[in-house]
Design goal:
With 205 residues, this protein is α+β, with helices and mostly antiparallel strands. It has four helices and 14 strands. The two termini are 35 Å apart. It holds the Pfam family Flavin_Reduct.
Length: 205
């Protein structure tokens, strides 16, 4: 079937893209806004934009709130220009992660409402997520916007300033992701990553 994305409404196009690009890792992005409230929200669009220098990328939202109001995460990033990316979301963190996705009022901290634990970072004001295997302290490089109001997607490019990895997952100088029990996002449901296997290139010239 040949599908022309032009003319598809937002929901149909979202389901087409999100249903094909799977599984997606889930990150928790921790921010602090002008009010000083610690915010944390789940995002399933995290990716590596560059290794050297280390740059992460993620889309904050694919649709803004009614009336065009920006979500707290994007607004806080624009204000503070620094934040924390906590990855991956694990099986043990799954329910807290899901709860953090609720639209709490801006003056309410998701940390307090979900049981996620904030820990002071070394270089940024946003908090680390204690439950996360890895926390990246980040500085904003650029925000690129796509779409038209109110369906605007904001692509955030973030320079990694520091990395915090739990000792039990960082062995002999390398992360051991299979020990983390990470979960992923399909379209609507989630998936576990317990069933893993190795592949080697067999083709030779």
């Amino acid at each position: 079937m040949l599908i022309d994305p032009k003319g598809l409404d937002f929901r149909v196009l979202h389901h087409l893209l999100a249903g094909a690009i799977v599984p997606r890792p889930i990150a928790l992005v921790s921010t602090v806004g002008e009010s000083g409230v610690q915010n944390v929200a789940p995002l399933s669009s995290i990716s590596i934009a560059s290794v050297s220098p280390p740059v992460l990328s993620f889309s904050v939202s694919t649709r803004r709130r009614r009336g065009g109001e920006k979500k707290d995460t994007l607004r806080n990033i624009e204000f503070a220009r620094e934040f924390v990316v906590a990855v991956p979301c694990t099986e043990e963190m799954a329910q807290s992660m899901s709860n953090a996705g609720a639209e709490f009022p801006s003056h309410v901290s998701e940390f307090e409402m979900t049981g996620l634990t904030p820990v002071p970072a070394s270089f940024v004001k946003a908090a680390l997520v204690a439950q996360a295997p890895v926390n990246f302290e980040c500085r904003l490089l650029q925000i690129i916007e796509f779409g038209e109001h109110p369906s605007v997607s904001s692509l955030v490019l973030a320079e990694v300033l520091a990395v915090h990895a739990k000792d039990e997952f960082y062995i002999d100088g390398e992360l051991q992701p299979h020990l983390m029990k990470p979960i992923g996002r399909l379209l609507e449901p989630y998936c576990r990553t317990r069933d893993i296997f190795d592949l080697r290139v067999e083709y030779t010239l």
